[in-house]
Every structure is written in C-alpha cells, then in structure tokens.
Amino acid sequence: MSTGASDTSESQAAWHGFCDALREAGDLLATPGVPRDPQTQAEGARYLSRMARAALEWYVEFNDPAFPVLYRPAHETIKLGADNPDNLYQKAVIDGRYDYRLVGTRGTVDYLSMATSQGSYAENLTQIETGFLDGSTLSVDPDGRFEVVMSQRKRPGNWLCVTPDSESLLIRQTFRHRDREEPAAIHIERLDTGATPQPLDLATAAAQFEKATAFFKNTTRMFSDWSHRIAERPNSLPLWDQDFCQSVGGDPNILYYHGHFKLSMDEAMVITLTHVPVCKTWNIQVDNFWMESLDYRYHRISLNQAQAEVNADGSVTLVLSRSDPGCPNWLSTAGHTEGTLCFRWVGAKEAVNPQVQVVAARSVSCVTPATER
Predict the structure, then answer these.
(1) What is the pTM of this model?
(2) What does the pLDDT read at residue 1?
(3) How many domains does the chain contain in total?
(4) CATH at residue 250
(5) Which of 3, 187, 200, 307 is deepest in the core (most CB within 10 A)?
C-alpha cells in the first residue's frame, strides 16, 4: 500500500477544493438583488451550511450504487428547491447496469410516486426521468406488502424502468395530514450480489468529494438564480415552464407554480382559486428567498386540499400575512417581508391559475367557508 506524498497531495486537494467552494459560496449572500434584512441573511448562511451537509450526504455517505441506501435528501433541516412540506422524500443512488428490488408496506400515505432519472445537479443541473411508477397502480397484497423490480427489462408485476444511464431513484410520499397517516416503509436492495462493500480507497474518496463540491457549487447557484428570476415578477404566482420543471426532476403528475411576495408590515396577499378542478390534491407553501420551505414544524406556512376550507361558491381564498387576520386559510410569513411561493396541482385535469392581490391587512375580509376538506 502506498503512503507516499502523492496520496497526501490527492487527499489534501479533495478537501481543500470542497472547503474553497464553501468559502466562495458566501459571495451569494451579497449578490445584487438578495434581500439584506437580517432574517434573510441569517437564513442564507444557514442555507449554505445545510447544502454543504446535503452535498456530503448525497455524494460521500450514500453514493455507492452497488449497495444503495434509501435516505432522506430533504427534510426539516435540509431544504432545497421549494421542498414540499407535505412530502417525505427518499433517494437512492443507482446504476443502470444493475437490477434492484424495492420491498415494503404501503402504509396509508395519500400519494406515492417512484421515479428513476439520469443526470444530476453535480453534473449538468438536470434530472431527466428514465422511469416512473404511480402509487395508484401499485399492486399490494392484503397485508399491504409490495415488491417493485427496477430493471432495464420489463418484468411482470410492479416494475420500474431503469435505463443504462439511470443514476438515481427518488420516492415522493405526499401526506394530506402528516399526523394522521402512516408512511410507506420501503427498503432497496441490489438483486445480483451477496458481496459486501470494499474498504474506501483514496481514488473513490477524491472522486466523491469532487462530486460533492460540484453539487454544492451548482445547486446553491442554481436556486439563487431561480429566486432572482422569480423576483422579477413581484407579488405574483405564475405557472412555470413545465418542460423545465421536468428536466430538473419534477413529478410528471404535478403542475408547478413559483411566485414571489414582498409585503410591508400592514399588507396581506390574497390568493384565490376560482374553483378546484378534479385532482389528486393541491398545495401551497411559503418559502424564503433561498427557496427553502419555511419551518413548518412551528409555523403555518402551507396548506393542501385536505386542510383548506372552501367558500360557498366553490372557490378557495388564501391569505398570506405576518399576523393572523382570523381567516380559516391563513398562511404565515414567519416574520419575512419578502420570499418565494410554490403552488402545485397534483393529478389535475385542468390548470386553474391562482389569482393574486396585495391589499391592506386591515381590509382583509374572511369569507365564511361552506365546507371543510
């Protein structure tokens, strides 16, 4: 085994490159157009630390497609790209040369989808779908158990397509009420091995840190660029380019809207859905400038179809403001005066674009709901 200077040089270069990327990313906090208020700046520094943690988990800790592990890439303390507060996200690194099996129990979670993809934010800022399985078509036994084979060749039963270029698996579990539903319990295994992982070698470690560095640089810059684009249309919630959304890993069953809010202390944003089309569900969430969902553990920053109350005429009125005006569908800014928004139609038969209006908070009229869903 070599213990020469070249080994030291390679390991130092890998670590220094990652640390240099962390330092350089701090420049994002002072980019023109980034809000300078203390809350956005504080969350920006925390966001960079979270993305560093995500980079290490994605590309150092869980980056062996021969021995994949399902882990949570986004959750309460790692947030990116308008992460959905209703979702439990699970990810695994895969390799299209291998066959895999998912085994689990369905649980009671409302929506479940599984997608394989090629490309990554560390490579080319894309995640192109190579296979998709909608939970509504998943065959489950009477005890709630299921198996899914992931392979290039179609198999009988539950099958998820993998291509030679597939690099990752993403599972979305979407709740209507997190505190009332049981998530699916899922495990992944490679079908054609009984071996165990080899000890980590220097070349592998260096390559992993190189990918982690690229992911950190690319992702922090990409979502900052998105936020700047969103802010070009202040106080709006437009439908985004769905082809683009799909190219970066969006769910094909979802229509995505990304918007902006900038409200003074005495202003509110009223968001109206004129009607709710036939759909699996919808949801809206409040995000900060860095496109992180606000802390849904402690603040009411999201609502979905099961939680929101509907007006007598079938419309839905949502109110975003700093303090609660007493409306049933109130969303909190959690102290922010500026940030981003995300709205989703899941499985909708038509696109009903949210209507947005900024009004004086004192003038908000809370419509009496007809039903609660």
Answers:
(1) 0.94
(2) 45
(3) 2
(4) 2.60.120.600
(5) 307
